[in-house]
Amino acid sequence: EPDVIIVSGLKDVAVTEGDDVTFRCQVSHENARDVEWKLQDVALQNNEMNEISVEKGKIHTLTLRKVTEQDIGTVTFRVGPHTSTA
């Protein structure tokens, strides 16, 4: 099975407190496994505050809902050994 690589990485985003923010990362193959999102080195799970999804099989998205000052920091997307940060 070929290595899944990041085709289009994350972009830095400025957002107002209380708004939602979405990060997107495109990978080379559909159905990528071993995928992880982190905020400030803390692994994120899909819940009411974090929406993690995959669009068209290759575009992985993370939406942080109603961000606060505590959400300031580095967002990391990892697939296998490859990472992208914003």
Automatic annotation (TrEMBL):
In the UniProt record, does the keyword tRNA processing occur? no
Q: Which domain of life is it from?
A: Eukaryota
Q: Name one GO cellular component term.
A: cytoplasm
Q: Name one Pfam family in it.
A: I-set
Subcellular location per UniProt equals: Cytoplasm
Q: Which InterPro entries match?
A: Ig-like_dom, Ig-like_dom_sf, Ig-like_fold, Ig/MHC_CS, Ig_I-set, Obscurin/Obscurin-like_Reg
Arranged from A to Z, the UniProt key words for this protein are: Cytoplasm, Disulfide bond, Phosphoprotein
Record-linked SUPFAM superfamilies = Immunoglobulin
Occurrences of domain Ig-like (ranges): 2-86
The protein depicted here goes by the name OBSCN protein
Q: State the encoding gene.
A: Obscn_3
